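User: I'm curious whether this sequence folds into something compact or stays loose and floppy. Could you predict its structure so I can see for myself?
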Amino acid sequence: MSVTDLFGSITTETLNVSIPTESAPPDVGWYLICPSYGKINHVYFQLANFFLFLSYLAPSGLGGLLYLRATLAVGLFFLWLWGYVVLCSLDTFAWNFVCMWINVGHVIYLLWTLRPIRFEKELEQVYGATFAPLNVNRRQFQRVLRCMRAIRSVSCREMIIEEQATRVDSLTLVLSGQFVVSQGGKALHVVSRDQFLDSPEWFSVLTDDYFQVSVTSLQESRVLVWHRDKLKLNIMEDQFLKAVFDNVLGRDVVQKLLQVDRIFSSGGGLVPGSGEAARFLDRHSTLLGTPGTNRSPVETRSGARDAERIEEYEDQTSWRLLPIDETTKNGTRV
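Assistant: Here's the prediction. I'll summarize afterward.
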């Protein structure tokens, strides 16, 4: 029996084997354009992508960041709902659930950051008069207030700073009332509302140093006291705030120098009988020292605040400047 007779009955159909033949290459466009599309996805999927689309339109700034996080959270919420209810896919559900809560956390933090910041009445007055005109925002001012030691009430004729006895460890702003600054028993100038009692000591004076002047209240007053070193360390991290304080305190020092210079130059110093300087001394001669005679209510003028009044004192018998012998030479105290 030949091989041909043995395998003659075997055909390609029996073996079910197809012999490849050359054919035309497939159309390359089949993977660029789907031959048919499936049905539209669920409404949850559509809403998710709509909010994701809105998130791409977020503007810049802190408000834009809040908008971005909020729209992302809503979009991820619908993607989570779609994966859980419609797709029934554990990984789709889990990933969108986690990402949604991350963005919700950012939204809560940003809302807390953007909350309205309000201060007490006296602090609002300080912010509006001194810091708001210099473009200090409320959040920066709130940071400054964290260094505040206290808001203190000062009684009439109370010495709040004593010469050579009080350490330079604070920065004090007058909220209301007036104070007289003196040295060696001689009145130098008056500090009024929205001015600093110790602005000259802010520059190049250490905390361990002592004040070279005394400060006494002319009337019932209130002051805002900062921890000096704590405030300096705080604003050192913010160059803008540091520049603002240097500017504000620098102007305050210049005003004090002009006021003192005006008093001394007008009469050659705070010497009785020397014109305006003598009248200035007479107005404040009831502040310090030994007892004297009763004096009538007076009207105080102090440098740049010539029009301000000092309240009437009923009992001024125990407040007089200590007599200090002082002469002048060529308009200069010696």
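Summary: Strands lie at 148-154, 159-161, 170-176, 179-183, 186-191, 214-217, 221-227, 328-329, 332-333. Confidence is low (pLDDT under 50) at residues 10-15, 268-334.
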